[in-house]
Amino acid sequence: MGGNPLRLPALLILLLCSPAVAHSKCVLFNFGDSNSDTGGLMAGLGLYLGPPSGRQFFHRPTGRFCDGRLYIDFVCERLKMSYLTPYLESSPGSNFTHGVNFAVAGAATESTAIPFPLSTQVLQFLHFKNRTRELRPQGSGSLLSEKEFQNAVYSIDIGQNDVSTPFSANLSYAEVVVKIPSILSRIRAAIEASQSLLLHQNGGRQFWIYNTGPLGCLPQKLALLKKDDSELDPLGCLADLNSAAKAFNAGLSELCDLLRSEFKNATIVYTDVYAIKQDLIANHTKYGFENPLMACCGYGGPPYNYKFRMTCGEPMVTACAEGSRYISWDGVHNTEAANSIIASKILSAKYSRPQIKLKGLCKG
Prior knowledge:
Blueprint: H1 10-17, E1 28-32, H2 40-45, H3 71-78, E2 99-101, H4 118-135, H5 146-151, E3 153-157, H6 160-168, H7 173-177, H8 180-191, E4 206-210, H9 219-225, H10 239-262, E5 267-271, H11 273-282, E6 297-298, E7 318-319, H12 336-348, E8 352-353, H13 358-361
Parallel strand pairs: 1-2, 1-3, 3-4, 4-5
Antiparallel strand pairs: 5-8, 6-7
Helix pairs in contact: 3-12, 6-10, 8-10, 11-12
């Protein structure tokens, strides 16, 4: 049959070319510590976190303190994003098209031995945004638009080191909790304003704030700090450390309420990671886990498989055969199996206030 070559109808061409139906891209800027560090510390300090880290999924060390993926990796997967590249990673292959990960292992809200506290991470964000503006006209850099910065989700997962480290320095519960207002004020400064630390005024309108988990259930803390069983709660965790985590979380929740009233045009979601992780421990058999307070990769065997200076990655230290049966990877950080469940619960919004799904905050 003769005739004109096949052509797409004009209306279909118009629809395909229309910005209104362009692919919606989620952009995420993450600030935090080792719970969400995808390789920042290793890149920033030029260190190497060797095997058996990364043995699951990646099948190689990636700088993550885990046998595989972190909860933030699963979040990115399920939001159809690329994994977040650490800000400090300058090697070829870095990808900032879906945002940046500023989280660094060991980070806290105040300056510690690790030179990347929350305030520095926020300054790094400001530098990244300014450089993006400079490079965008040249067609280089991340090419993130001003609208993408404004519509991005800014997640903050920090506080664990602020609360737990003083206990390791033999401070009492009372001495630790008096520090909480200062911790919260530094988190507020990162969101609200403290001279040039202006996440909110520099485009951030959507904040996803994670509280801290049951720190008294970490095998590391149990192995190093427990003196006798009278210090334990019904789950077998250090009661004072968990109480301090709860006190921090209560203050963080109140701070989120305050910021919502202050910034009417902002969305601030508070996510209860404590409840998520406590549920994993309390109901570990339901999720297929065993020995919920014991590290997969460590030394010493039961009950915690953790020994100072003989930690995961050191010579003579071995990992369990099946990390999928454990919640704790190295005594401090979760296994990939646990992270997958944690991510699912985060994305469900059942543990968030208000109950807004992270996916719903993603805008093109």
